[in-house]
């Protein structure tokens, strides 16, 4: 199961509304088939692994990180495929909370005489599937607040544009996080100050850039910005601006003409925005821009995970103060991981359950 969970990470962030699931078909200690949910969400991992195993799957054990589906969607149920292949045993890490499944896959397998073992490495499985589980259970994405803070407690300088507070190794980790996430969000202050693209700039993973959201009450984002341009061909990546209902109609027309989606629901109800994101299939969200935006997400209890990069750089007098640093982590979070990337210390915190 540990191998299946590692495999499931391969396509995290690339499987559309479906979770990235890993599956191994094993017989007599030999892996006959190993697969992960395909980009776009189909085919599912189980059917691919069974195809690789072929007739030898009969009598084998299937290890799946998520309960095999039991409903007819765009493809037949994976539970049916496992039954047809005559596997002897299915080992599952996490039961699927989807209302169409919720144990029905397990029931189908057991009714066919297949031995089923559930809850294997469930804690690790729930961690790997955290975004999908959040969307299905909480009806909102898993939210990661990412912040880089200088040694003197700042995140930038007013009017200085983008400042690389962290080093190149930390940047690579940030872009890997983008590749594994469905969406990224910033405020209009960051958008105007930095003029970012919010893309994944790791060679070979450019097409894994997350969809982008900007909190922009009055539609101040220029239609000629780099962010708007970066969402066009060849990435064809959705960009959504969240604004007030009374935002300027002329600005709206210019942005919509540039293929920008406008969500006029207001920028204060972040819980409502997250529910809308989940309804649109967003399972994982990175909040990356601005101290005010970070404080708002924290104040509304929407942050599940904090990724904090503490750097030796100093920004001096007049710099923009960070909403917190590693000595003032918000209440309710616990440290789960700490790594060094060059001179930068990266710490991951999770909300206590």
Task: Describe what you observe in this structure.
The protein is α/β, with parallel strands linked by helices and 353 residues long. Helix content is 28%, strand content 24%. It has a 9-stranded mixed β-sheet with strand order 11-10-9-8-12-6-13-16-15, with helices on both faces. Helix 8 (188-194) links the parallel strand 8 and strand 9. Helix 3 runs parallel beside helix 4. The two termini are 25 Å apart. The model has no long low-confidence stretch (mean pLDDT 95).
Describe the secondary-structure layout:
Layout: H1 2-8, E1 22-27, E2 30-36, H2 45-53, E3 61-66, H3 78-84, E4 89-94, H4 104-111, E5 115-117, H5 122-128, H6 130-138, E6 142-149, E7 154-156, H7 168-179, E8 183-187, H8 188-194, E9 211-215, H9 226-230, E10 239-242, H10 249-257, E11 261-263, H11 270-279, E12 284-287, H12 291-299, E13 305-310, E14 320-321, E15 333-341, E16 344-351
Helix pairs in contact: 3-4
- Range of helix content: 25-40%
Number of DSSP strand runs: 16
Rg result: 22 Å
Name the overall outline. globular
Summed up:
By secondary structure, the chain is α/β, with parallel strands linked by helices. Helix content is 28%, strand content 24%.
Please name the defining characteristics of this protein:
about 350 residues, 12 helices, alpha/beta, five-stranded mixed beta sheet, globular
């Amino acid at each position: 199961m540990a191998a299946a969970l590692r495999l499931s990470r391969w396509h995290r962030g690339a499987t559309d509304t479906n979770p990235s699931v890993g599956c191994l078909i094993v017989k007599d200690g030999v892996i006959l088939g190993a697969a992960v949910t395909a980009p776009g969400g189909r085919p599912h991992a189980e059917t691919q692994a069974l195809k690789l195993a072929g007739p030898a799957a009969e009598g084998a054990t299937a290890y799946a990180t998520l309960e095999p589906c039991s409903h007819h969607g765009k493809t037949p149920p994976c539970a049916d495929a496992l039954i047809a292949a005559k596997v002897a045993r299915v080992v599952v890490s996490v039961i699927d909370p989807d209302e169409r499944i919720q144990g029905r896959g397990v029931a189908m397998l057991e009714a066919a005489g297949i031995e089923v073992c559930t809850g294997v490495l469930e804690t690790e499985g729930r961690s790997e599937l955290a975004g999908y589980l959040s969307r299905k259970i909480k009806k909102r994405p898993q939210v990661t607040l990412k912040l880089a803070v200088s040694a003197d407690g700042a995140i930038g300088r007013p009017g200085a544009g983008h400042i690389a507070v962290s080093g190149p190794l930390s940047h690579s980790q940030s872009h890997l996080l983008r590749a594994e996430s469905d969406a990224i969000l910033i405020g209009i202050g960051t958008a105007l100050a930095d003029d970012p693209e919010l893309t994944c700039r790791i060679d070979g993973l450019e097409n894994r850039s997350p969809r982008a959201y900007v909190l922009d009450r009055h539609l101040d984002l220029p239609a000629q910005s780099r962010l708007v341009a970066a969402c066009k061909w060849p990435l064809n990546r959705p960009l959504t601006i969240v604004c007030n209902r009374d935002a300027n109609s002329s600005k709206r027309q210019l942005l919509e003409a540039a293929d920008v989606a406008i969500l006029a629901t207001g920028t204060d109800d972040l819980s409502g925005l997250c529910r809308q994101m989940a309804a649109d299939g967003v399972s994982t969200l990175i909040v990356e821009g601005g101290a005010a935006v970070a404080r708002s997400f924290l104040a509304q209890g929407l942050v599940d995970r904090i990724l904090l990069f503490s750097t030796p750089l100093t920004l001096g007098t007049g710099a923009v103060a960070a909403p917190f640093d590693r000595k003032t982590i918000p209440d309710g979070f616990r440290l789960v991981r700490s790594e060094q990337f060059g001179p930068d210390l990266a710490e991951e915190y999770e909300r206590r359950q």
